[in-house]
Specification:
Blueprint: H1 9-32, H2 34-38, H3 40-43, H4 50-74, H5 78-110, H6 116-125, H7 128-143, H8 148-161, H9 163-172, H10 179-202, H11 207-229
C-alpha cells in the first residue's frame, strides 16, 4: 500500500484557500441558475429546450461531484479524491460535449438562417469559448495531479471559467440593461481576487493562477464583443 505523504503547512493553507473559493464559486452557480432551473417549478418563466435540461442535469452532476471532491480533500481522504477524480475526468468531457450541442441548438433557434460565420459569432456570444476553456483547464489539471498545489489552482480556474452564464443570470435578477459589461466586470473582479489572494498567501504570483486567469479574461473579452456585435 502506498504511503500518503503528509501535507506541509503551505499545502494545508492552499487547501483551505481552495476550499473557501470553491464554496464561493459553487454558490454563484447554484444561485445564478436557481430561478430558471433549480427552483423553476416556483420561480421559472423562461422556456427550456431539451438540450438545456440535459445540460443543466449534467452540470449539476459536475457541481455535486466537485463538492464531494472538496469535501474529500478537507477530510484528508485522498483515496476518495482520486477515485472521484476518475469519474470527474469523464464527466467533464460530457459537460463540454453536451454544452456545445446545447449552444449550437440554441444558436440555430435564435437565427435559423445564420451563415457559418454567424453561427461562430453566436457560439462565442453564448459562452462557447468559456466552455472549451473549462475543458482545457480540466485536462491540464489532470496532467498535474502529481503536483497538488498546481492541480488545485487549475481546477479552481476551471470552475471560474464556467461563471459567466451564472453571473449573467444573477445580474438579470436585478436589471436587464448593460448585463454583458457588468458580467465582464464581475469576471475581472473574481479572477483578480483569486490571483491576488493566492499571491498574498504564497508570497509570489503563481503561474497556475495568473496564466489561466489571463486567458479567462481574454476569452471573456471576446465573448463580450461577440455579444455586443451579434
Amino acid at each position: 500500500m502506498i504511503q500518503q505523504r503528509p501535507q506541509t503547512v503551505g499545502e494545508r493553507t492552499d487547501s483551505r484557500i481552495a476550499t473557501a473559493l470553491f464554496i464561493l464559486l459553487v454558490a454563484v452557480i447554484l444561485v445564478g441558475f436557481a430561478k430558471n432551473f433549480y427552483l423553476r417549478a416556483w420561480l421559472g418563466s423562461r422556456p427550456l429546450i431539451l438540450t438545456a435540461w440535459v445540460h443543466g442535469i449534467v452540470m449539476s452532476a459536475w457541481v455535486a461531484l466537485f463538492i464531494a471532491q472538496v469535501a474529500a480533500i478537507a477530510r484528508d481522504r485522498l483515496d476518495l479524491h482520486r477515485s472521484f477524480g476518475q469519474l470527474g475526468a469523464w464527466l467533464a468531457f460530457v459537460v463540454v460535449a453536451v454544452g456545445m450541442v446545447t449552444i449550437v441548438v440554441r444558436a440555430r433557434l435564435v437565427d435559423p438562417e445564420a451563415t457559418l460565420r454567424g453561427l461562430a459569432l453566436l457560439f462565442v456570444a453564448f459562452d462557447g469559448l468559456s466552455l472549451l476553456l473549462f475543458g482545457a483547464l480540466v485536462v491540464t489539471a489532470w496532467r498535474y495531479r502529481p503536483t497538488p498545489a498546481v492541480h488545485r489552482r487549475l481546477m479552481t480556474m476551471a470552475m471560474v471559467a464556467l461563471l459567466p452564464p451564472a453571473y449573467g443570470r444573477l445580474v438579470a435578477y436585478f436589471r436587464h440593461d448593460h448585463v454583458e459589461i457588468i458580467v465582464l466586470g464581475l469576471m475581472m473582479l473574481t479572477v483578480l481576487t483569486f490571483v491576488m489572494v493566492d499571491a498574498a498567501r504564497s508570497h509570489r504570483l503563481q503561474r497556475a493562477s495568473w496564466i489561466p486567469g489571463l486567458v479567462i479574461l481574454l476569452v471573456d473579452g471576446c465573448t463580450y464583443l461577440a455579444q455586443v456585435y451579434s
